Model the fold of this input.
Amino acid sequence: MPTRRILVNGVRVVVQEFHASDVVAVQLWVGVGARDEASSELGLAHYLEHMLFKGTVTRAPGFVEREVEGVGGRINAGTSLDYTYYHTVLPAPRAIPAVEMLADMSVNSTLSEKTLDLEKRVVLEEMRLGEDNPRRRLSRQLYELLFDGHPYGRPVIGTSELIQVLTRETLVGFYRRHYVPESFVLVVVGPIIASEVLAAAERTLGRLPRSGLKRLPLSAPDAGRSARLEIERPGTQAYLGMAWLGPKLDHADTPVVDLLVSILGQSRSSRLPQMLRERLGLVSSVSTAYSALEAAGAVTVTAQLEPANLARAEAQILRELQRVRERGVTDAELRRAVTAAEARYAFSTETAEGRAYAFGRAETVWRLEEELAYVDRLRSVTPAQIRSAARRYLDPERYARLAFVPPAR
Amino acid sequence: MLASLAALVAAAGTAVAQPPSVTRHVLPNGMAVVVRENPVAPVVTASLQVRAGSRFETAETAGITNFLVRTMIRGTARRSGTQVAETAEDIGGSLDASGEVESAEIRGEALARHWEELLGLIAEVALEPSLRGEEIERERRLVLSQIKTRAETPFSLSLDTLLRELYGSHPYAWHSLGLKSAVERLGRAQLAAHYRAVFRADRAVLAVSGQVSRERVVRAAERLFTKLPRSGAHEVGAAPPAAPSGERRVLERPAQQAQILAGYLGPGLNDPAYPAFRVLGAVLGAGTAGRLFAELREKRGLAYSLGALTPFRTGPSFLVTYLGTAPENSAAAEAGLLAELEKLRRAPVSDEELARAKAYLLGSFALDRRTNARQAWHLAFFEVIGVGWDFPERYARALEAVTTADVEAVAQRYLNRPSIVVLQPPPR
Done:
C-alpha cells in the first residue's frame, strides 16, 4: 500500500517502497489541463508543459540531459483535458535530486522570450504530425463533435492561430495561476525510503506558499446530441468513429461501463471484432474505448475499413449495441471482462512507473482509495447492470459520428 | 549506467527482492527453454520464437512467415480461432503472433496462477495449427490492409522506401509484413510447407518470465513440446549482398509534414564494430542531448519528431536518421540533417558526448527489459538468433568499452554517401 501525505500547503505526496528493480519513478502531477483554459488560452497547458523543460532560474537549459539522461534516466510529460504530468524513471539514488528538480521546474521555470518563440515552431510541427495521423485526428475531432461547445471538445494542443500570437505575459500568467501547491501531486515509487522522500518533498514543494486556488468544477456537457460529419482525407482507406456520452469518473456506473466496453470491443474475442472483422469481413480493425473524465465520460467505437463498407459497418455496430441493450451479456463474457481487468491491473504493477501512473492519476482526478479498490468494484457488477448501462448510455439513435473518406475523384 | 543493486541495498538497509534468476535448459528434442523467475507481480509471459522471418524470404515469398504465424493463432485441431482467443482471455491473458525480420514469435501472457494453461495453449497453437482455408483468407485480407496502411502513412512509406534503397535485392529490403504481390498469392500448401520447415525443435526457443517455478516450467515444456520434430530439411538460401543506392528519392504525397530520411548500412550485431555503431547512432539521436534534437529541434525549431534508428540484425544493420517538418522548411531541414551526418565524419566526438551517449544507450537497454513481456522477448530473441540469451550482458559491457576512436572509425567506414528519401506534398 502506498503512503499518502498532505503537506501543510496542500501539496499531496504519494510514496511507495517497491523493490522490483533499482529504478525509481518520480512523477509530478498538476491539476491543470486543456479544460482549465479560457477560449483565448487554448493550448496553453500543453505549451507550458513543453516550456518547463527549458530551464529554471537556477538550472540552465540542458538540465534534463545533465540530471536525467546523463545518469541513464528518462523524463517526459503529457497534457490531457484534466491534468498535466511530468514523469521520470531514474536509478534509485537519484530519487531525491529528481524531487528537487521537478519542484524547481514547477515554480521557477524562466519561460524566456527567446525559447518561447523557438518552441512555437516545434509545437506547430507537433500539430502537423497529429493531422497526418488518421487515428489521432479521428479521436480529437470525434471529441470535438461529441462535446461541442464544452471544454472537453477543445483540442489539447490548441490552435495554430493562438499559438502563433502567444506572448510570454499570457503564459506566465497561466503558469502562476495553475502551478500552485494545491494543484500538485508528487508520486515516488521505487527502492527508496519513504520518510526520506517525504522529507525532501517537505523542504521543496512543502515550502511554497498556498495560493488559495480552488479549481473551478466543470459543468457536465449538455445531453449528447446527434451529429454526423464526413471529412475527406488522402489515402484509399476510410476511418469511422462513433461516440456517446458516458458516466464521469466519479459515478456509480463507471465500473459497469468499463466492463460493457470491454465486452463490446477490447479483445480478440469481444463482440464487435468477432462480428465485423471476423464474421462479416467489414473492417480491418474495430475497437471500443471508454474515457472516464472528471466531469463527463466518452464511449467511442472506432474502425478502419474500406470506404464501400462504411454504411454497412455503422449499421452493424448499431445492431450489436441493440443486441446488448435487449439481451444483455453472458456470464462467461462478464467473467472474462473482469479477469481481463484484473490482469491489466496486475501487469500495471510490474514496474515502478506503472504503479506511479495509477496512483498519480487517481490522486489528481479521483481518489487514491477508489483506485486501490477498483478491481473489487468490478467483481461485483452483474449482467443486469451491464444491460441497463447499455440502455442508458448507448442510444442507437443519438450519437456523434465522424468518418474520414478518400477524396472523391 | 544504472546504479548497482548491491550498493543500494547496503545504503538503504532494507529487504530487497532477489534479483530474478535466469536459467537455460535443453529438451531431449533439442528445443531450448529459458526461464526467468520474477516474483514482482502475479503475472507470466511466454515467448516462443523460431528462427524464421523476412530475412529468410525471397521476393516471391515475402511475408510468408508473418502470414503463417498470424494464421496459426486462428485455430487448432481442437479449437476455433474464437475459442483460442477466449481460452487466452479466460486466464487473464492474450495470445498474439508476428513474423519479424530475424525471428517469428507466438507470445502470450496470463495471470501467474494460470501459467500452465498458457504454455499448453501456446504448445497447441505451435504443434496443431489447423490452417483452415477460410482463416487463411481472413488473415490475408487483414495483412493486405496493414500493408496498404503502411504505404499510406507518410513515415512508414518513407522508411520502407529508404530500406529498399539501402538493401536492394537483399531481403532486409522489405518489411516483415511482406510484399503485396507475394501475400496475394501465397496458398495453403505453401504455408503448410513453411510451417513444417520452420517449426522445428532445433530452431525454436521458449522463454518464460514471471511468477513461476523454473523446475515446473521445464517439466511442463518437456511434456508439451516433446512432439515438436527435432529438425527438418530446411534450406536457408544465402541472401544476395545488400547494395545501397546512395541516391536521393523524392515521393510526392498529400501531407501536412514533409518527411526527410537519410540512412546508411552498418555492421551486424556480431561484428566487433557494432557497439561503436550503436554509440554513433546515439550521439545523433539519443534524447534531448542527441545532436539532432539539440541542433534541429532546440536551436532551430525545425521538427517535433526526429531521431535515429539502429536495429539488431545478424546481417548488415542500418542507421536511419529522420525528421518531419513543415513543407516550406524541407530544404533547410534536409541540409541541416546532412550537415550533422557530415560533421560526424569530419570531427571526433568529445569524451563528454561519448559518455552521455553510452549512458543513454545503457539506460534504454536496462529500462526496456523490466517487464516480463520484454524480458521474455529478449531472452528468446537473442537465444534463437544464435548469440545466446545472455547477449545483453556482453553487449552492455562492449558498449561501455567503446572509445572515441572506435566511434570515429565507424563514422569513417560507414557514413559514406547516404541514401536519402524525401516525402513532400505536391507543389500547389
Summary: Chain A touches chain B through 63 residues (CB under 8 Å).
